[in-house]
């Protein structure tokens, strides 16, 4: 920090003031309390913390100041999160008992967990042994379990990890199980528990896996991979109606994320197969029409759409014959487009409109063009297996090596084995093999063929897959909604930036609230794995008598303690009068100002380099606030000066703050051309007024005066410095603490001797700690 230097020797000042505190603090017995002084200390702590960046010693000074603030106003809700944030960057974080005490009072369902995580991590780093860390986390878990389930879940998961590292798998599994029960969005707990269960031959059942996938999609409904994971899992269960809904969700999401892009085949093909199996001909037709429009003729989607209509009785099989003829003609005329080739026609005559002579012909053409392609070998083998020419050995040569991972190849090998009279197989063995084919991809036409064979061989055949238990569990957990309806951000969530007023007065503290309302019918989760991570960027500019663009004013993460329930909201607090904003508001008291704030949630940097919100316009919030300058009439100023002698303590504090700000304004306009027309008060009058505040009988007024000098003037005025130095002997510790903080702004080694004495001899722990922290900083 750069402050004005004084030519007065600090050591000499202390000698003049009687640098001896042997009996000065004898009266300091009663506990002191002052929300006003607590706020002053907290503001200084916040400013230091912001300035500290990667300087832990400076953050340590801030930590002492915030501890002092908590001492003076232990019930102030705003102090705990700031204290936790500061402690995470200080050279020495909170001790285990102190952090536990703070968290016990701070943690609720609405608490910001980001600052809690940081503070806990800092304290863990300070512990020397595994046993100390385990004891600390275990105590926090027991104390906070009923106060915040999300935090308790994270603590339990961390304990599980610690015990796992000790090879105590049963204890680890117990903690992971508790973690997942407390918070089903805790993916670390789920994955670790599932791995431990599997290592013992268990693991989550299908219902448990499906429920976890559904929670993951709830957490981030804009994750395409999560939507497709759920769709694929439901498809694998043969729950084709629900899988079709999940693929439809994925298609809507893809369109939302990729405007004007073609829907990928990985989405529309599986969506169509599920819709086909679920007897949804209208959906099949819609998909085929879209693919036709976007990519041109596609035999697969056209075939499935017509086949679904045939199954529904709205078309006859002649439409399929016409489609096959059309595809062959297009290929022969070299007018096939990018989605038609011999392999696709071979597939068509194998599964859609079975004609195995044609299938063989086209499969052989495909083999000639792509002799090493596995899918070509598989379809050729399947056509041979169905052609009845006793080509079992050839089928195996083509398909055996790829049957493990290619469904068509496995079906071909199975059919070859079934039809081989030399291989006698009972119905159970055949059913087992055919079920294995189905399980590879239950929605495919190859799976449909395998199911049809099993039904022909056994009228009492029951499918190997029964999705009902899984679907029932999903409905129970998610209020009968297996797959949610897709909603864009602006329908899913409503975000507002609010302040208590659009107009603020001198020395007002600027706070804003971000209100996030959940408009959906499921939880809204703010977490690192959600589309809402709690990342906030605030840009600011000031116009009017002073014009300056401050750029990035605030950059922070805030994560509420619990998911936001449907219809509910979360409120995130932002302190706006920080850094350069607070400095300008302080040193230009007579300026009429307009303060403009741009709050960006989930900031991202696209290719053009301009920071935007990943939430689009929903995540960009603006606010304008006016701050009229003080009208310094003779009558008003005279009234303020009289308040120093006759007014209530709060009025006296308001006056000294005004005097300090006016003095700062004069200093500012000595360095630069005045920015606006300002009434100039005699400097000696301002200094006398501040000295009067320093001489006040009320320790709160004295502390507030010292704070006003810190914020507005620093220690640059020699007359003020002399008056300030007298307060190191004050009976009340907040006055001494603020005095040595202000005096330490002087550069030079002379003051080190004074700080050394305070660090060892002062009667108050916080004053000693501040002196030591300031001394460490100067060293």
UniProtKB/TrEMBL annotation:
UniProt keyword annotation of Ribosomal protein present: no
Matches recorded under InterPro entries: ARM-type_fold (IPR016024), TPR-like_helical_dom_sf (IPR011990), TPR_rpt (IPR019734)
Signal sequence, start to end: 1-26
Each TPR repeat, start to end: 153-186
Keyword Signal tagged: yes
Assigned keywords, A-Z: Signal, TPR repeat
Protein's recorded name: Uncharacterized protein
Organism, as annotated: Anaerohalosphaera lusitana
